[in-house]
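Z., the sequence and structure:
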Amino acid sequence: GLGHALGDTLLVEVAGRLRGALPRDDLVARFGGDEFVLVLHGVADAQGLDALRAGIDEAFAMPVRLGDHVVAMRYSAGVALHPADGGDAHDLVRKADVAMYRAKQDGGGRFAAYSQGMNEAAREEVELVAALRGALAADALDVHFQPRIDARDGAWEGMEALVRWHDAQRGWIAPSR
């Protein structure tokens, strides 16, 4: 939103802050867009992340000045551990990415460690989104109108429009889903 030059400046600042929060032997690499991969040599389990997490939280606590703008930063981090979560870089990055999206779903500004159930949940979400796009294209969503009534006197105050979706395989899809 502030242009490529300021965006690049922000990415350099984020990389520097991450680098400063890690031990010397660890690696910070920009993976693409606004995503970074950290390769941490001294972390063997989720408990080993606590001190590191505190350092990263501190690094992101202070806003960044970009020209006339002050930008507050937040992060969402997914964690996959070797060898428990995978034996090669590709598998570990994929699983850390799944965990990162879980951290985002949980409100952001946090770490989420990969767990086996996350793959299934991520696959189900991808399938659900694809089915919803198909339902939109097929005009298969139902709109229901619900009156809003004042409980004191029974007078109509307005109307709510509710969209409902009945999927052939999944049945009625809850709005929370």
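The two ends are 30 Å apart (CA to CA). The mean pLDDT is 89.

Let me know what you think.
H.
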